[in-house]
């Protein structure tokens, strides 16, 4: 069966420029692994649970997995959905895939059958790699559901002690013996993997990243963050996400020869003992978790003094919270404003405190081109809010196989419309003000209003629904569904259970449901979904404020 080819192409003049300038070095993931394994052979690459692997061992395991996957029947170029939590095997699996020239498609552990089916279909995947269980959830049951609907997903590989319950699944430790040599080195301009978008409309789009572009962002990030062989990075957020994967994340740490410590959960209960035991120097969190850590640290018996840098990103960190990081945790805050599509901004470790607490950083590269435009597409003056557009050596030029989305998300001259509203300050520092698009940034997890509305509309007692974001003191934003019932209104809890029961990631279930008799319309009788959502949100917040002042 022919699958849709993967590609990511920059205009030849720019590609030549990035190569000549030494931004794209031609390094590929297989070469990256081999070089680190020879240079840092005996050093500890990754720690997790009872396991502690050296660089040499990580490379040996990845090589064994690569041969096994090919012997199993997967072929170079095949896409493989990887849904693996923070365990050392995440790294041996993805590097195994790279060595076999198989293409990982990163799913998050929170994803359920709706998301996994979508990713597998959209990528035309033939393989699916899971951990047997994680945080009380049985991924084999999920795999059974997904493969029943999608027979093309032929190979299910299960990581875990217990033998797979199902015939037809293969344990990672029981892959067949490698049958031949590994394939030839990929070209650095080839797509190495598919990352997933936050999904501002509908389901996530697939983001093809090349060896050249991604490894540039990894190396540059490791440098900006001052990583060395002595760095110990705690992977607290799910490593399949772009932030803990490459900003600088686990890949940046491996680039520098440091040690990755896999935390099964980002909670202080799981993370603090690991920080103390492994003398962790750096980690990355989303804002709500950073707030939890700030609350828990003063009462903790664990020694957190090894921590030098706390990164916070994925959603806006308020300046008030940001100012508490140094006094409470005794470490430097680094704000990270990035996107799986490419552009990543960092505050630098030696920036003045006011920049660190008050901005979301500046781009990695002098070759990142950043535009801040008004609604008519004209540049706004410095300090004024506008739409952020960007292109550069590690920002994609298009999603996989989605001309409609590409026409909306990219300008004819190749700028990516991020959907973010930012203000630019002197020195190129960006301050994020909000989103132009209709998605909810729920504690860093992006929820598309449209996707949830579609699920709500599938309920027989729902006539219409509009999902909006509301400010939330803990999550940053929470989702609120305004629903017009068809006849008798269902109970809010029942409607939430209905949405969950459709097999969605938990973070997409509306946090709040408000029943309304009708949606207001304009004199012409029609409003766009966008206007409708904006109006519902505004009216609700105004009514809430009025209630608060009167009480
Ligand atoms: C990261 O990546 P995605 O793809 O899950 O989400 C990207 C979107 C951005 O467009 C922006 O809306 C929001 O997440 N965002 C932030 C932010 N960092 C991301 N909004 C405000 N302040 C921040 N610091 O979330 C991501 C990827 C790489 C590194 C860090 C985060």
From TrEMBL:
<feature type="domain" description="AMP-binding enzyme C-terminal">
    <location>
        <begin position="451"/>
        <end position="526"/>
    </location>
</feature>
<protein>
    <submittedName>
        <fullName>AMP-binding protein</fullName>
    </submittedName>
</protein>
<dbReference type="InterPro" id="IPR050237">
    <property type="entry name" value="ATP-dep_AMP-bd_enzyme"/>
</dbReference>
<feature type="domain" description="AMP-dependent synthetase/ligase">
    <location>
        <begin position="34"/>
        <end position="400"/>
    </location>
</feature>
<dbReference type="InterPro" id="IPR000873">
    <property type="entry name" value="AMP-dep_synth/lig_dom"/>
</dbReference>
<dbReference type="Pfam" id="PF00501">
    <property type="entry name" value="AMP-binding"/>
</dbReference>
<dbReference type="Pfam" id="PF13193">
    <property type="entry name" value="AMP-binding_C"/>
</dbReference>
<dbReference type="InterPro" id="IPR025110">
    <property type="entry name" value="AMP-bd_C"/>
</dbReference>
<dbReference type="InterPro" id="IPR045851">
    <property type="entry name" value="AMP-bd_C_sf"/>
</dbReference>
<dbReference type="InterPro" id="IPR020845">
    <property type="entry name" value="AMP-binding_CS"/>
</dbReference>
């Amino acid at each position: 069966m022919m699958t849709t080819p993967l590609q990511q192409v920059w205009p030849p003049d720019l590609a030549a420029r990035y190569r000549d300038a030494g931004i794209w070095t031609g390094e590929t993931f297989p070469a990256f692994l081999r070089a680190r394994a020879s240079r840092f052979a005996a050093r500890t690459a990754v720690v997790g649970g009872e396991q502690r692997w050296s660089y040499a061992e990580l490379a040996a395991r990845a090589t064994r997995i690569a041969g096994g996957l090919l012997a199993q029947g997967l072929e170079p170029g095949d896409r493989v959905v990887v849904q693996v939590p923070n365990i050392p095997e995440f790294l041996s699996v993805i590097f195994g895939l790279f060595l076999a020239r198989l293409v990982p498609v990163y799913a998050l552990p929170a994803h359920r059958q709706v998301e996994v089916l979508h990713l597998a279909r959209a990528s035309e995947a033939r393989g699916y790699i899971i951990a047997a269980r994680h945080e009380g959830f049985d991924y084999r049951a999920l795999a059974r559901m997904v493969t029943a609907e999608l027979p093309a997903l032929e190979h299910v590989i299960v990581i875990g002690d217990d033998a797979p319950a199902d015939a037809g699944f293969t344990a990672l430790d029981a892959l067949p013996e490698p049958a031949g040599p590994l394939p030839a080195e990929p070209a650095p301009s080839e797509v190495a993997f598919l990352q997933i978008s936050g999904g501002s409309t509908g389901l996530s789009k697939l983001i093809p990243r090349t060896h050249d572009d991604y490894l540039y962002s990894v190396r540059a990030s490791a440098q900006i963050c001052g990583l060395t062989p002595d760095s110990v990075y705690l992977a607290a957020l799910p490593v399949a996400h772009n932030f803990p994967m490459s900003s600088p994340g686990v890949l940046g740490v491996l680039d520098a020869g440091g040690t990755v410590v896999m935390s099964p959960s980002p909670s202080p209960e799981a993370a603090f003992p690991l920080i103390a035991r492994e003398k962790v120097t750096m980690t990355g969190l989303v804002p709500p978790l950073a707030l939890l850590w700030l609350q828990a640290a003063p009462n903790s018996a664990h020694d957190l003094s090894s921590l030098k840098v706390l990164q916070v990103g994925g959603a806006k960190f308020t300046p008030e919270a940001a100012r508490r990081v140094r006094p409470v945790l005794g470490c430097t805050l680094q704000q990270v404003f990035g996107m799986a599509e490419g552009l990543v901004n960092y505050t630098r470790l030696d920036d003045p405190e006011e920049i660190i607490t008050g901005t979301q950083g500046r781009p990695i590269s002098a070759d990142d081109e950043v535009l801040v435009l008004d609604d008519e597409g004209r540049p706004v003056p410095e300090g004024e809010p506008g739409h952020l557009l960007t292109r550069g050596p590690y920002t994609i030029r298009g999603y996989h196989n989605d001309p409609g989305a590409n026409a909306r998300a990219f300008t004819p001259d190749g700028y990516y419309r991020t959907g973010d509203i930012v203000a630019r300050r002197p020195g190129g520092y960006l301050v994020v003000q909000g989103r132009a698009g209709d998605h909810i940034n729920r504690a860093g997890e992006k929820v598309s209003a449209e996707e949830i509305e579609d699920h709500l509309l599938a309920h027989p007692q729902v006539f219409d629904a509009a999902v909006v974001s509301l400010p939330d003191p803990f999550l940053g934003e929470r989702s609120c569904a305004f629903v017009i019932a068809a006849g008798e209104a269902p109970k809010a809890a029942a409607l939430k259970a209905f949405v969950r029961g459709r097999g969605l990631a938990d973070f997409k279930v509306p946090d709040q449901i408000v029943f309304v008799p009708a949606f207001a319309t304009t004199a012409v009788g029609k409003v766009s979904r966008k206007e409708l959502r904006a109006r519902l949100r505004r009216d609700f917040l105004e009514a809430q404020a009025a209630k608060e002042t009167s009480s």
